[in-house]
Design brief:
globular; EC 2.3.1.35 (chains A, B); homodimer; amino-acid biosynthesis (chains A, B); 17 strands; 414 residues; seven-stranded mixed β-sheet; L-glutamate N-acetyltransferase activity, acting on acetyl-L-ornithine as donor (chains A, B); Ubiquitin-like (UB roll); six-stranded mixed β-sheet; 2 domains; alpha+beta; 11 helices; L-amino peptidase D-ALA esterase/amidase
């Protein structure tokens, strides 16, 4: 069973991966009793002096207080000559809490800054859970000293568990480059956080030495093909956050140019870890029974390919057909049509796995409904759409829409 | 039970309304055996010489052949000096059927034109049902003569039934103005058409005398607040169509200026009929148990208000919370935030019915969860969001997202 009492997703990895230690990053988790009982719900992460920090945050216009605070701090630059820290709590999102929200953020940041002897401007926070309830920040402040004393380079797996809300499994991924550079990430997110919303939190750490501006560029350039390429139900949280820290304490030479061989290797590995975590979030999609890759090619440009892929991935009709193991390519055609992207009905080619089901504006002459239905029984599906117009391409990932989703979101709080 | 064997929606009107006869419009329906057995599936509508015709069609880029044909014909103008006709079949959408699709449309139009002695350019068609299957148009052609002989001014109720697919009740509405002018409409649509998609078809008739350009303007000006203001599941069909015909055979004086008193009365009545039919489509939303009005005010402009209202109406999180009778205003805040519209978290006011639940960036101090939960038990709900920024306003209508929706769309075809 997951932390919230839900059964573990059938799409979960077999086990939490062994994650390497990142020199210069320490973790501590503990129970503050914010909402959940009998489990850790607060994590403190300390990042060594001389590190750099980058971030990406929700575009919601009703962002939570901690998001606005993180953005303001990162706008001052990503250098952390004296070190930095991240404090994450689950159980309460501190969102839509009026002026009190920022006061809670300030109180937590001040406590962490004092405990770790850091400038308050280098303390970042995340809150996830119920919204519209005041954050009992005093419970976090009360255990800050204990957390600081418990910091440990091996605490990453505990942290991955402490940040869970309705997640049914903890999410972690890593990569080690040929030069010894290490990248580690943890994430939470599973569609939505009962009883409120779909917060996704991601923390990435590397021992590479990367100037702050370059680090931000490495992070930003990977978003569109990883975390912005997944959807469970099209809902965006007020609190989505991704923070990446680079300590420079690893074996690799400093990376100052992402177009250098070392820079390219780093970016490829970083984006691989990001994609792995993004896929894990989809695999924990509420009620999900199938992991679906939707690959769009032949679009006028990449943006149009993304539009088409997301229209398919977010279509309740497509998602329920997949849940019903129905090779319903007509719903794909309809989703392409409504996407707003340039498309020509008579050039479309649609395939399920390797099986072409439609081409040139009509069902493929060799289409075999029995074979297509057999394919749809699988747990891992790939739907390809070729628009036949240009070179634009984009792949996104989603899951099916099942009775389990309704159960969790309609029935959970009551 | 509805035609497709589904139970009648709990939100259905008590009975089909008595619709007045429109002088100059005749209906005939019959069984062609296109897909369904033991029921009418083809309707022929004859519109008298001297009428004018207007239309509105899906914006999908994968439009069905009949849609492209209707649009091309209306692009030549809306006058019908020799009369016009509409032929509608259910059971097959003739969508994504390649070049054969247009050939089927041509065959049907030629047969109707011959049977009614009309120019083929004034014969409009609609097809709704399964997509990607060739339309057996010869079955329609074979009964065209019978249909022509059976035309009757009183056949509108039968027509409302013949065009149903997964609809669980036939949809009709009417208005009679003080000067005796009559407006009648029928519609079909219920989310989606099993096993394929969400086609909505609407046919409106009036005995008013209205020049074609003015008629089109009267129709177009009402779309944003009626049929474009409803959503069951955000999916748009390849085949949505609305046709309005004015025969000029009624008691009223010709309407040449929509800003005249008579013009304004006509537009108000027409839009009222359109809104009534639009609401009936939502009330037949697949699996719907609640009819929900979402009223957004205080937006920067009407377009932003529409964006916010639709983001709320299409949010699976909001729709499942409503199904669960959960007064989950946090999900409303999140939907506002993701809408892309201008919004200020600290100016938002959210109400369920007359109950203000949140204001000024936080839960209302007088918020009473028990009272809010009691309100959510109702079958007809109103959610109001005031953005506090400007004068933009828009109201949309939707339904909840239930296990019934998954049943119909995941399990129906298998």
């Amino acid at each position: 069973m997951g932390k919230a009492g839900l059964p573990v997703s059938p799409l979960a990895p077999a086990r939490f991966p062994d994650l390497p230690v990142i020199a210069g990053v320490d973790f501590a988790s503990a129970a503050a009793g914010i909402k959940y009982q009998g489990r850790s719900d607060v994590t403190l992460i300390r990042i060594a002096p001389g590190s750099t920090v980058a971030g990406a945050f929700t575009r919601s216009s009703t962002r939570a207080a901690c998001i606005l605070d993180n953005q303001a701090k990162l706008a001052q630059g990503g250098d952390a000559p004296d070190g930095a820290a991240i404090l994450i709590n689950s159980g309460n999102a501190n969102a839509f809490t009026g002026a009190r929200g920022q006061a809670s953020v300030d109180a937590v940041c001040a406590a962490v800054a004092e405990a770790l002897d850091l400038p308050q401007g280098r303390v970042f926070t995340s809150s996830t859970g119920v919204i519209g309830e005041p954050l009992p920040h005093e419970r976090i402040v009360a255990i800050t000293g204990d957390l600081a004393r418990g910091l440990d380079a091996g605490g990453v797996a505990d942290a991955a568990r402490a940040i869970m809300t309705t997640d049914t499994f903890p999410k972690g991924a890593s990569a080690t480059l040929a030069d010894g550079t290490r990248i580690v990430g943890i994430a939470k997110g599973s569609g939505m956080i009962a009883p409120d919303m779909a917060t996704m939190l991601v923390y990435l750490f590397t021992d590479a030495a990367v100037p702050a501006g370059v680090l931000q560029q490495a992070l930003s350039s990977g978003l569109d093909t990883t975390f912005n390429a997944i959807t469970v139900d099209s809902d965006t949280s007020t609190s989505d956050a991704l923070i990446l820290a680079a300590t420079g304490q690893g074996a690799g030479a400093p990376i100052t140019d992402l177009d250098s061989p070392a820079g390219r290797d780093f970016v490829t590995a970083l984006h691989g870890v990001m994609r792995d975590l993004a896929h894990q979030v989809v695999r924990d999609g509420e009620g999900a029974t199938k992991f679906v890759e939707i690959a769009v090619t032949g679009a006028t440009d990449d943006a149009d390919a993304h539009r088409v892929a997301m229209a398919i991935a977010n279509s309740p009709l497509v998602k329920t057909a997949i849940a019903g193991q129905d090779a319903n390519w007509g719903r794909i055609v309809a989703a392409v049509g409504k996407s707003g992207a340039q498309a020509d009905r008579d050039r479309l080619r649609i395939a399920f796995g390797d099986m072409v089901v439609a081409r040139d504006g009509w069902r493929d002459p060799d289409y075999d409904e029995a074979a297509a239905s057999a394919y749809m029984q699988g747990q891992e599906l790939r739907i390809s759409v070729h628009l036949g117009l240009g070179q634009g391409a984009r792949t996104v990932w989603t899951c099916d829409l099942t009775h389990g989703y309704i159960d969790i979101n309609a029935d959970y709080r009551s």
